Amino acid sequence: MSEETHSKSRSLYAEAIKVLPGGVSRNMICRKPHPDYATAGTGCHVTDIDGTVRIDFANNTASLIHGHAHPAIVSAVTEQLQRGTAFSMATESELRFAQHLCSRNQSFEKIRFMNSGTEAVMAMIKAARAITGRPKIAKSEGAYHGTYDYAEVSQKSKPENWGLADSPASVPLARGTPQRALEDVVIVPFNNVDQTIDLLNQHKDELACVMIDPLPHRAGLVPATPEFMEAIRAWTTENGALFALDEVISFRMGYGGACDWYPNVQPDLTSLGKIIGGGFPVGALAGKDEFMACLDPTKDRLPFPFSGTFSANPITMTGGLVAMERFDRAAVEQLNLLGNYARKEIEAAIHSTGTEACVTGAGSMFRVYLKSKTPTEYRSAWQDADEVQKINFLVDHLYHHGFMMIGTCSAALSTVLGKDEVDQLVESLAAGFQKLKSQT
């Protein structure tokens, strides 16, 4: 009998499909013939239930900035666990964490905590509507902003339904999305200033906010240009809409987030998540006091009532504060340098193997494409079935050789990774390129 026949992960999955749709609660962990089950993580390594150890370059989809089971986080959270996990009262940990995050970015005058990045984006959109009294939002084509109806429009549009380049269609992700939700989302082409401004002008009296991810993963994992960001900031100011920045993923790029890259741009509202939780579920909405006031329950008239049972729970607040205090300016700079090193070495591997490929990304993230021309926005980043199959092969090759990647062949580095781990990944990646070439 094969080793796979005796796999503990396979046995668990056989049980899981009886009680979970598809056997999972997160689509991104699906693998064929079944997902593997983690039993422990330490530093940059994850061990599955069958004893296989892998180097983790995915870090729970960019949420673990210090890898697994960081001793300082474990110690602080263990102490808090003994005192309690959630109360119908405020906690000092919420205050201290709020103070710390607000100190990192001058546009963060107030902050409200919640439990996920999706929830943070949802709150940002609803706050913008409450502030402006307008129904519509604008977002970049292909950008992922979570699973809220409005946020997910045109997240995975295709050539057959995405419309004209200068007027992208609003395409539903989930079947049954209300038509009105689609009509209330204006889709703009990422990094195209002229076309974006033209589209915004067509809806200028209806737009509550323009929502931008400055490093959209699904739109190529390329940074927004300063010209694009500055044009949107100017347009929103002139037309009474809010400039809403989604930094759920990109906050890792600078001490104050990717916003640090754009000194001439200050957002009105910013959504946060992932790394600020210290490994626990988290979301947050931050912004200028005048805009965050719409959430203030002490006001006689409350434009946007918002609460949550586990929002600002002391476990997340404690773990998050420890994690972010340790992700100081020096740590941010060091991790971004490692990202630069990784992209440079991957480019060298692409060149040395003669592979038709490229690498995108910025800061501590990168993504490998099997394209000769580097994507600049969603349409040039879009992959047909053949490209997807080859990327899946490459991701599986890396996985079976001891490396965990995000499913798009992307990586989000952690502070416990170093050049040795990157060199090992690049060596395996080069071998994967060679295998792909041999198949064609």
Q: In short, what is this structure?
A:
This protein is α/β, with parallel strands linked by helices and about 450 residues long. It has helices at about 10-15, 60, 70-85, 90-105, 115-130, 180-185, 195-200, 225-240, 290, 315-325, 330-355, 380, 385-400, 420-440; strands at about 40, 45-50, 55, 110-115, 135-140, 165, 165-170, 185-190, 205-210, 240-245, 270-275, 285, 360, 365-370, 405, 410.
How does the SSE layout of this entry go?
Elements: H1 8-16, E1 38-42, E2 45-48, E3 53-56, H2 59-62, H3 71-83, H4 92-104, E4 110-114, H5 117-132, E5 136-140, E6 163-164, E7 167-168, H6 179-183, E8 185-188, H7 193-201, E9 207-212, H8 226-239, E10 242-246, E11 269-273, E12 283-287, H9 289-292, H10 314-326, H11 329-353, E13 358-362, E14 365-369, H12 378-381, H13 385-400, E15 403-404, E16 410-412, H14 419-439
Parallel strand pairs: 3-15, 5-8, 5-9, 9-10, 10-11
Antiparallel strand pairs: 1-2, 2-3, 4-12, 6-7, 11-12, 13-14, 14-16
Structure in words:
This is Glutamate-1-semialdehyde 2,1-aminomutase 1. With 440 residues, the protein is an alpha/beta fold. It folds into 2 domains: 36-65 and 328-439, Aspartate Aminotransferase, domain 1 (Alpha-Beta Complex), CATH 3.90.1150.10; 71-326, Aspartate Aminotransferase, domain 2, CATH 3.40.640.10. It has 14 helices and 16 strands. It has helices at 8-16, 59-62, 71-83, 92-104, 117-132, 179-183, 193-201, 226-239, 289-292, 314-326, 329-353, 378-381, 385-400, 419-439, and strands at residues 38-42, 45-48, 53-56, 110-114, 136-140, 163-164, 167-168, 185-188, 207-212, 242-246, 269-273, 283-287, 358-362, 365-369, 403-404, 410-412.
